[in-house]
UniProtKB/TrEMBL annotation:
Residues 89-161 form the Coenzyme F420 hydrogenase/dehydrogenase beta subunit N-terminal domain. Residues 172-338 form the Coenzyme F420 hydrogenase/dehydrogenase beta subunit C-terminal domain. It comes from the Bacteria. It comes from Aminobacter carboxidus. Residues 410-424 have a biased composition (Polar residues). It holds the Pfam family FrhB_FdhB_C. PANTHER family: 7-HYDROXYMETHYL CHLOROPHYLL A REDUCTASE, CHLOROPLASTIC. Coiled coil: none annotated. This is Coenzyme F420 hydrogenase/dehydrogenase, beta subunit C-terminal domain.
Length: 424
């Protein structure tokens, strides 16, 4: 197995998740975070890195390895969905949160409970950039208003850990909400920096099928016939369940399209290569993870508008289980039973994804490409459960991609993303 050992290789071989931890660890004079020409958030090298700096980053980077949380907190894992200490469907009890959020507002309700009960000083989380409504940024939120404003799914690049060292230096105690890969990075960091476990008592994640290039966002705007410079508000979903993708221009023009029109029609965008070899779409390293609790039609999840949102959520740790229990008792969260069989049927896209990873990694190994050490994520076990058709599709696709160098990304010294300014 070949693991990338330098930031340059992590980025250029398509293994970077864009979390920003490397830039925070080494400082701004060494690495900045910016949109790459491919439209992904990537470290941009500002000077040559020393060998010791490379080692510092590799201990933490999930393009290199995923070491996971301390084992004593983990339950015996489900082969696909990982440790399940508590599983339920539910939603925020506050109707405004439930309406505005991506799904049923479980993550926002838990965040609000943590702040209002004094468990933490604030929440480190992603929201809309204050400079550009098409972009995302990370902020440290301490008030209800800020936390609710950061609800919703931002399917696009962000670097949620770009200031993580400054946050730890500040001595604050906070919860973090992010993608599974962001949490995995924090767990790696916890192994070398004891402040993580002391100061970040709660790590919450969403199910994640992969994060697209920012070109997806710009292409949605172009498809509506608008110039990106005129956009005043942009939402991928929320304000309903799943809620329409929504664009409002400065001139007051509004556009909407359904979830399926956004993600399952002819929208052109690239998913990060790192997401294609991700074995942790269901947030195994988080204390609590939440996903959609889709309405099932003919045994398949339907994405049609279904009124008030429902999440399914899993507590992975004792601490996460206690948090959910406390939030229910305090009246922030409503819960109903949800079974593992329902989870398996509803989120089999994550089953397929996990079963495929081993075969994708095999193709990378055969073509001498590096890939991360996936640690305790049961990649081989899941791979052996794949059908022959699934194995072949995953292997062949990655082999072709690797041979054509389509897993590669622009160098860490290249320029930034330039949006297409033509309207369609
Ligand atoms: C890239 C991406 C892929 C997803 N894939 C799936 C999937 O495959 N299956 C599924 O069931 N659900 C998926 N979701 C999650 C789903 O959209 C909801 O976020 C989830 O159901 C939680 O709902 P909620 O109502 O509790 O969230 P909310 O209460 O609205 O809270 C969402 C939280 O997520 C944070 N957040 C939003 N975007 C990002 C981001 N890009 N990076 C880090 N943090 C972010 C916000 O800060 C907020 O705290 C995905 C979300 C994203 C962003």
């Amino acid at each position: 197995m070949r693991v990338a050992g330098r930031v340059e290789d992590i980025v250029e071989r398509g293994l970077c998740t864009g979390c920003g931890a490397c830039a925070s660890l080494l400082g701004n004079d060494a690495l900045g975070m910016d949109l790459s020409p491919d439209g992904f958030m990537r470290p941009r090298r500002r000077r040559r890195l020393k060998d010791t700096e490379q080692v510092t980053v590799m201990q933490v980077c999930t393009g290199n390895r995923l070491s996971g949380p301390a084992p004593e907190d983990a339950a015996a894992p489900h082969p696909i969905f990982g440790p399940i200490l508590h599983l339920a469907r539910g939603h925020a009890t506050d109707p405004e949160i439930r309406f505005r959020s991506a799904t049923g507002g479980v993550l926002t309700a838990l965040a609000l409970y943590l702040v209002e009960s004094g468990e933490v000083d604030g929440i480190l989380q992603v929201g809309v950039s204050s400079d550009n409504p098409l972009l995302n940024d990370v902020s440290f939120n301490t008030s209800r208003e800020q936390i609710v404003a950061s609800s919703g799914s931002r399917y696009g690049p962000t670097a949620p850990l770009r200031d993580i060292m400054a946050m730890l230096d500040s001595g604050r105690r906070f919860a973090f909400i992010g993608k599974p890969c962001d949490i995995a990075t924090l767990r790696n960091l916890a192994r070398v920096d004891a402040r993580v476990d002391r100061q970040i008592p709660y790590m919450l994640a969403m199910f994640c099928g992969g994060n697209p290039s920012i070109s997806a966002t710009y292409n949605i705007v172009r498809r509506f016939g608008e110039d990106h410079r005129d956009v005043d508000e942009f939402r991928y979903r929320g304000h309903g369940w799943p809620g329409p993708t929504y664009v409002r221009t400065r001139q007051g023009k509004e556009h909407r399209q359904s979830y399926d029109e956004t993600w399952f029609s002819n929208l052109t965008y690239e998913l990060m290569f790192r997401c294609k070899i991700c074995a942790d779409g269901t947030g195994e390293h988080a204390d609590v993870v939440a996903g959609d609790c889709w309405v099932m039609e003919n045994g398949k999840p339907s994405h049609r508008e279904a009124g008030d949102g429902w999440n399914m959520h899993i507590a992975r740790t004792v601490r996460g289980t206690q948090l959910i229990e406390d939030a229910v008792v305090a009246g922030y969260l409503h819960e109903e039973p949800f079974s593992v069989a329902e989870l398996e049927a509803m989120h089999d896209d994550h089953g397929l994804k996990k079963r495929s990873v081993f075969w994708r990694l095999t193709a990378l190994a055969l073509t001498a490409q590096p890939f991360p050490d996936h640690g305790a994520l049961r990649v081989v076990q899941a791979g052996l459960a794949a059908s022959w058709r699934e194995r072949w599709a995953a292997f062949r696709g990655t082999l072709a991609r690797s041979l054509k160098r389509r897993n590669r990304e622009s160098p860490v010294t290249s320029g930034t993303f330039a949006p297409d300014t033509t309207t369609s």
